[in-house]
Amino acid sequence: MQLLKERILKDGTVKPGNILKVDSFLNHQMDIPFINELGKEFKRRFSDVPITKILTIEASGIGIACIAAQYFNVPVVFAKKAQSLNLDGDMYTTKVESYTHKKVYDVILSKKFLSAEDHVLIIDDFLANGCALLGLIEIVRSAGAALEGAGIVIEKGFQDGGQQIRDMGIRLESLAIIESMSDTSLTFR
Fold it and tell me: Where is the signal peptide (predicted)?
């Protein structure tokens, strides 16, 4: 998606350790008209499959998923990274390692929000090593729901997460795929 690539080049910052900061428009401060265009693109790419739920993981994926959900006219459910007092009933749980936080989270989703009748589209902001996406896939499979695909805003194509997901036969649509990054520059596929 050319609009996204241009915005990454204009406002993104490459940090040591293969970190791409897009916090000025995507995942800290959110440019809503811009993210609205991303939502339209996800709808265009997944218009051929039935979607009843959009699934993401807290926190950065929530805003993107919500904006995309308006085009599918479906609810968003998100997996939480911490148990809280307001979570009750049966839960789907898995463990997910965060690439940027270097921490393993117990990811939790209430079973009442995802069932075998659902057709799920997973949406998230980044795909690097694939841990978060694999955790969400595990939750969808535990629910017996149909996984229709995954929509990722930015994929780090030089890491193995995207290839691992594709090798599983899962439809993966990334709006921008970074081919390579150095401490000062990046190139797109």
Answer: none
